[in-house]
């Protein structure tokens, strides 16, 4: 996948995260999803965490993805990383967030 396509998918995930996380009517309203997105450009990683009923530090997230966006040329790093490599995973995240938004 080309860098342009990866960028478009990452931006779509960020936009969906904002849409999903702002469904509630007020910041204190409970029972609505919270989506956290973290992009680490220096290592090309995208982390997405979803709390379907709102963030609570006492519970585990419902879904969590660690995606390494570009194949690393160092085999040693690839062996030690727990990230998913591949942009097909970005499509899975987008589909999940779209379903969450439309639920």
Give me some keywords for this one.
103 residues, alpha+beta, four-stranded mixed beta sheet, 4 strands, 21% strand
Provide a brief overview of the structure.
Helices cover 39% and strands 21% of the residues. The protein has 103 residues and is of the alpha+beta class. It has one domain.
Quaternary organisation of the protein chains: single chain
Which class do the helix and strand fractions yield?
A: alpha+beta
Share of helical residues: 25-40%
Q: Runs with pLDDT <50, length 5+?
A: none
Largest sheet: 4 strands, mixed
Describe the structure.
By secondary structure, this protein is of the alpha+beta class. The protein has three helices and four strands, in the order H-E-E-E-H-E-H. A four-stranded mixed beta sheet has the order 1-2-3-4, with helices on one face. Strand 1 (34-40) and strand 2 (45-51) form a beta hairpin. The mean pLDDT is 83.
């Amino acid at each position: 996948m080309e860098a342009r396509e990866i960028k478009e998918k990452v931006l779509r995930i960020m936009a969906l995260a904002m849409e999903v996380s702002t469904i509630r009517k007020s910041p204190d309203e409970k029972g609505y999803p919270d989506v956290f997105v973290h992009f680490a450009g220096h290592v090309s990683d995208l982390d997405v965490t979803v709390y379907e009923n709102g963030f609570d530090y006492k519970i585990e997230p419902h879904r969590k993805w660690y995606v390494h966006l570009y194949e690393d040329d160092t085999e040693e790093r690839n062996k030690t990383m727990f990230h998913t490599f591949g942009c097909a995973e970005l499509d899975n995240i987008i589909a999940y967030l779209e379903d969450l938004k439309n639920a």
